[in-house]
């Protein structure tokens, strides 16, 4: 397993840094506008409705940058740096999460909103050397006939060199690729990255997250092996890993709330629980931990 980067080693193409910088809409809004070649009046961050959606967290997918504009259009932006050769189906799964987060039981399908799933990759997933790959559902027999489901998937390839894109988007892509500052916006991005690195609060947060990630992996593997041996089944190992991941994630965000780095409302929303259920689970896991250590 590759050694985790330090905060000072992170670039905008790392998940943590990208999320930290793009939480400021003055960066995310123009990024969306340049990628999609549209003008957006205003965007705001929101949390998908996770608690009422059965199976929503079945694969533990979290939508890092999920925003809605004034017209109700949804934008989900993700960084992808590992080529696991499953990008199309991965984006399909993210689309399903966005759709599930919108509709409640009894809602009409017409209430599904227009949405964009955008993945920024540091590799070319399709091998055509294009800056952008934009996908919409069209009729094979009548290519000018759009399906009309109002879903669009966009892949930004930072390694590309083909296609007509704006100079502003090229500036962003060059910065994502090589941290090359070529204009005012990339200079502002670079300043924001350096501000994150200089922040003691961010440094503590990143350290805590890394520690918990390591603990989650260790605990999950250990519990999975124990359960697998007890049950003699592959399912035991899977369940052990799942429980270890869930507990680890909950305790991670709980530590952030205790250190004043996250409100309890945000912590609960992060793991897809109400505040009341979040506090109940924390109390349960804390009790179990104390019993295991004999405290």
Could you characterize what this model shows?
The protein contains nine helices and six strands. It has 295 residues and is of the alpha/beta class. It folds into two domains: 7-198, no CATH class; 200-293, no CATH class. Residues 49-58 have low confidence and may be disordered.
Calculate the terminal CA-CA distance, rounded to whole Å. 33 Å
What gross morphology would you assign?
Answer: globular
Model regions low in confidence, pLDDT < 50 over at least 5 residues: 49-58
Mean pLDDT: 83
Count all strands and give the number: 6
The DSSP helix count reads 9
How much helical structure, as a percent, in the residues? 40-55%
Rg over CA atoms, rounded to whole Å, is 21 Å
Share of β-strand residues = 5-15%
Please trace the helix and strand order, writing H or E for each element.
Answer: HHEEEHEEEHHHHHH
Strand order of the largest sheet: 1-2-3-4-6-5
Task: Quickly count the domains.
Answer: 2
**Main sheet properties:** 6 strands, mixed
Structural class by helix and strand composition: alpha/beta
How would you concisely characterize the structure shown here?
By secondary structure, the protein is of the alpha/beta class. The chain has nine helices and six strands. Strand 2 and strand 3 form a beta hairpin.
Features:
globular; 295 residues; alpha/beta; six-stranded mixed beta sheet; 2 domains; 9 helices; single chain
């Amino acid at each position: 397993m590759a050694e985790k980067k330090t905060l000072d080693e992170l670039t905008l193409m790392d998940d943590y840094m990208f999320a930290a910088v793009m939480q400021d809409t003055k960066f995310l809004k123009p990024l969306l506008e340049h990628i999609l070649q549209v003008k957006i009046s205003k965007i705001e961050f929101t949390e998908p409705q996770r608690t009422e959606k059965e199976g929503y967290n079945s694969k533990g997918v979290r939508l890092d940058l999920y925003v809605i504009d004034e017209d109700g259009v949804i934008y989900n932006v993700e960084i992808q740096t590992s080529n696991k050769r499953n990008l199309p189906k991965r984006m399909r799964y993210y689309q399903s999460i966005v759709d599930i987060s919108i509709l409640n039981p009894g809602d009409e399908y017409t209430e599904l909103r227009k949405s964009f799933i955008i993945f920024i990759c540091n590799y070319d997933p399709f091998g055509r050397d294009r800056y952008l790959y934009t996908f919409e559902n069209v009729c094979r027999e009548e290519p000018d006939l759009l399906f009309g489901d109002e879903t669009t998937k966009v892949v930004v390839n930072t390694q590309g060199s083909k296609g007509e894109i704006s100079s502003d988007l090229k500036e962003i892509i060059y910065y994502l690729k090589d941290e090359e500052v070529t204009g005012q916006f990339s200079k502002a991005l670079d300043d924001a990255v350096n501000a994150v690195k200089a922040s003691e609060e961010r440094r503590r947060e990143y350290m805590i997250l890394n520690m918990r990630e390591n603990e989650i992996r260790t605990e999950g593997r250990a519990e999975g092996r124990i359960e697998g041996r007890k049950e003699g089944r592959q399912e035991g190992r899977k369940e052990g890993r799942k429980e270890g991941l869930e507990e680890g994630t909950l305790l991670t965000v709980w530590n952030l709330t205790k250190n004043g780095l996250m409100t309890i409302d945000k912590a609960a929303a992060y793991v897809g629980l109400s505040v009341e259920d979040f506090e109940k689970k924390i109390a349960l896991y804390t009790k179990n931990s104390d019993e295991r250590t004999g405290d």
